[in-house]
């Protein structure tokens, strides 16, 4: 039986991710954000479920579709928003943008624009924990498409061999950019790949945040005890396209409509209402708080300056 | 002073830095139990233990990625990639990850890591085990690229590279592994980013790297018999390039030859040549000539028509002196 306080907190975070992503789609459509964004609407249970099993001093590596992970790991929404806007008060001085958000102090090693690019890097933070003799765990996030990259296989093999304190979290939304899973792999359950490396593989309903949390807690506990990595596959659903503005012509309109039935935020909300952990008024209050926080963050970002010419040449070398 | 081989100078540097700083660890294929496929890491496992000297599977991307992640947490990995040619196997990790992590994350991280790798032909190792690819990496902002030519320089530069808080691609030369040279008994460092005038001269500047430093010195000896005094500059560091050393010499001699073992076309000689033309055209008394390998893969056999040598440097110097 999960702690109500924790469940409410998880629900708030899921609402925050959903509303942030919706706001970003809106801002992006207005042409206010440079570059590309890749929203994770429909997938909120995965980052929240996994990050709720982590300690603040644990690490995560993140992907181009990583807003949920950044928020779930505790990102300050103002600095997060400023980074997406490409402004100097962002986490990375505006140099990273949506795809490369990183925060050393929060343990967000870095988000990666190269599919599977962050997986080998997460081996290093896990190795550093072992080397230094602390019990910090590294959770490495990636999608179904990434599991076909060589870097994924090299990394699982090495992590398994050295018993690295890691959780490999596959956020399987069934789509590798514009290609569905059945066209990019023969496997139905990607967790089967774990057997090839001699580690446990688990598939879980990635739209049920409590189920994700339960499996994540098991995997994190294993890693922290020194029992090595787990491949945790969370099956979820991507509502929108690969990037904002992607018309998804490669996907059937029926499917695009049907995935909304799996709404993890609504599902959890209904459960909490039923369990009386929250009331409808309580939900309204959470939504209002989230909106206020987002409004403040957007204002902060829009008022933050873009970096100048002199800032461009800094930080190439230490 | 004592005499050591280039390969042993590397081992000494590693041993000294590992003894000095607990954050330093070695990782790569065959580096621990076998002591390195070229014996560079011989004895380190016995002295420092399994925690600090790690054998990996054949997984270059994992090796480099692990080094990067560990470096973000303040460890000082020295990763070995067995042949420079194999950097191609892990290019994403080197170019898109290591080189970019400090800058694109807004300066949050120092990345005190070294990737050691041998380049070069002369051992009939064939096209996939003999390349000199420093130009590729010099072209990527965020990396430092170092190419020592002597036992003295390789030891001093490797110690400096390990202490540097930036990613250093440390390019050794397998044909130089057996080269003997004198080094001090006591500890010393050689700075990164500074070229070394290996032989002063007034008639022509020869800027060289790695094995071609020795070929250029040999050429200079031959030319001296005819009264031509060549100034041989060993770059030692490719990036950050010691432009001042090159300018100072060209100002004196007005004539420049660049010699590298890498394929001449699109090599670092092209960059140095363009740079000198842009900034010192008034000092030049003739074209800048480059000595490099032909535009082919390195043949398994015969290498003697392929690898640049002292004679090529002599011919280039003679040509440039016609102006």
Write the element-wise H/E pattern of chain A from the N-terminal end onward. Answer: HHEHHEHEHEEEHEHEHHHH
Element order, helices and strands of chain B? EHEHEHEHEHEHEEEEHEEHEHEH
How many domains in all of chain B?
2
CATH structural architecture of the largest domain in chain B:
3-Layer(aba) Sandwich
- Strand residue content of chain B: 15-25%
Q: What would you say this structure looks like, in words?
A:
The complex is a heterodimer of chains A (about 325) and B (about 325). Chain A is α/β, with parallel strands linked by helices. Chain A has a single domain (about 5-305), classed as Thiamin diphosphate (ThDP)-binding fold, Pyr/PP domains (Rossmann fold). Chain A is about 45% helix and about 10% strand. Chain A is built from 12 helices and 8 strands. Chain A has helices spanning about 5-30, 45-50, 65-70, 75-85, 120-130, 150-160, 180-185, 210-225, 255-260, 265-275, 280-305, 310, and strands at about 60-65, 110, 140-145, 165-170, 175, 180, 200-205, 230-235. A 6-stranded parallel β-sheet of chain A has the order 2-1-3-4-8-7, sandwiched between helices. In chain A, strand 7 (about 200-205), helix 8 and strand 8 form a beta-alpha-beta unit. In chain A, helix 4 (about 75-85) crosses helix 11 (about 280-305). Chain B is about 35% helix and about 20% strand. Chain B has helices at about 5-20, 45-50, 60-70, 90-105, 135-140, 150-165, 210-225, 245-255, 270-280, 310-320; strands at about 1-5, 25-30, 55, 75-80, 115-120, 145, 170-175, 180-185, 195-200, 205-210, 230-235, 235-240, 255-265, 290-295. Chain B has a 7-stranded mixed β-sheet with strand order 3-2-4-5-7-6-12, sandwiched between helices. A 5-stranded mixed β-sheet of chain B has the order 9-11-10-13-14, sandwiched between helices. In chain B, strands 1-8 form a two-stranded antiparallel sheet. The longest helix of chain B is centred in the first third of the chain and has 15 residues, at about 5-20. Chain B is globular and about 60 Å long. The interface between A and B is large, with 43 and 42 residues.
């Amino acid at each position: 039986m999960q702690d109500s306080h924790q469940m409410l907190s998880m629900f708030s975070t899921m609402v925050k991710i959903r509303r942030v992503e919706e706001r970003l789609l809106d801002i992006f459509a207005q042409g206010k954000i440079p570059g590309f964004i890749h929203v994770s609407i429909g997938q909120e249970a995965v980052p929240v479920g996994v990050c709720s099993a982590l300690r603040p001093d644990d690490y995560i590596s993140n992907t181009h579709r990583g807003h949920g992970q950044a928020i779930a790991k505790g990102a300050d929404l103002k600095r997060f928003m400023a980074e997406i806007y490409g402004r100097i008060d962002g986490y990375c001085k505006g140099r990273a943008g949506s795809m490369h958000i990183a925060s050393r102090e929060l343990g967000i090693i870095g988000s990666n624009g190269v599919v599977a690019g962050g997986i080998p890097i997460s081996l290093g933070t896990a190795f550093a924990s072992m080397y230094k003799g602390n019990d910090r765990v590294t959770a490495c996030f990636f999608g179904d498409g990434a599991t076909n990259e060589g870097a994924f296989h090299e990394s699982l093999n090495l992590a398994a061999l050295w018993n690295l304190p890691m959780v490999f979290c596959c956020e399987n939304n069934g789509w590798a950019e514009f290609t569905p899973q059945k066209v990019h792999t023969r496997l139905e359950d990607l967790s089967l790949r774990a057997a090839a490396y001699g580690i446990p593989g688990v598939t879980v309903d990635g739209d049920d945040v409590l189920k994700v949390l339960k499996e994540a807690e098991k995997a994190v506990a294993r890693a922290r005890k020194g029992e090595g990595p787990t491949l945790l596959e969370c099956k979820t659903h991507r509502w929108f396209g690969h990037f904002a503005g992607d018309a998804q012509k490669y996907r059937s309109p029926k499917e695009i409509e049907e995935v909304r039935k799996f709404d993890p935020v609504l599902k959890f909300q209904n459960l909490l209402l039923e369990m009386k952990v929250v009331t409808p008024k309580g939900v309204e209050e959470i939504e209002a708080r989230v909106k206020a926080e987002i409004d403040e963050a957007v204002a902060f970002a829009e008022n933050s300056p873009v970096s100048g010419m002199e800032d461009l040449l800094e930080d190439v070398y230490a | 002073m004592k005499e050591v081989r280039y390969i042993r100078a590397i081992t000494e540097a590693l041993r000294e830095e590992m003894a000095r700083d607990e954050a330093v660890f070695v990782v790569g294929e065959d580096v621990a139990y076998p002591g390195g496929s070229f014996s560079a890491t011989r004895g380190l496992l016995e002295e420092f233990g399994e925690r600090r000297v790690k054998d990996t599977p054949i997984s270059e991307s994992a090796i480099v990625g692990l080094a990067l992640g560990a470096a973000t947490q303040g460890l000082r990995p020295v990763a070995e990639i067995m042949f420079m040619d194999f950097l191609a196997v892990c290019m994403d990790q080197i170019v898109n990850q290591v080189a970019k992590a400090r800058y694109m994350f807004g300066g949050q991280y120092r990345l005190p890591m070294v990737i050691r790798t041998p380049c070069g032909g002369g051992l009939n190792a064939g096209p996939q085990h003999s390349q000199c690819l420093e130009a590729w990496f010099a072209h990527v902002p965020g990396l430092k690229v170092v190419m020592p030519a002597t036992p003295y320089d390789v030891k001093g530069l490797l110690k400096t590279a390990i202490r540097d808080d930036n990613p250093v691609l440390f390019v050794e030369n397998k044909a130089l592994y057996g080269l003997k040279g004198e080094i001090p008994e006591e500890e010393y460092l050689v700075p990164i980013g500074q070229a070394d005038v290996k032989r002063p001269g007034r008639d022509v500047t020869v800027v060289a790297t790695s094995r071609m430093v020795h070929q250029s010195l040999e050429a200079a000896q031959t030319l001296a018999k005819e009264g031509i005094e060549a100034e041989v500059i060993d770059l030692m560091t490719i990036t950050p390039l010691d432009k001042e050393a090159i300018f100072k010499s060209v100002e004196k001699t007005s004539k420049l030859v660049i010699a590298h073992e890498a394929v001449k076309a699109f090599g670092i000689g092209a960059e140095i040549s363009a740079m000198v033309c842009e900034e010192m055209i008034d000092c030049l008394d003739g074209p800048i000539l480059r000595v490099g390998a032909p535009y082919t893969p390195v043949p398994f056999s015969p290498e003697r028509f392929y690898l640049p040598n002292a004679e090529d440097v002599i011919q280039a110097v003679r040509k440039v002196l016609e102006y």
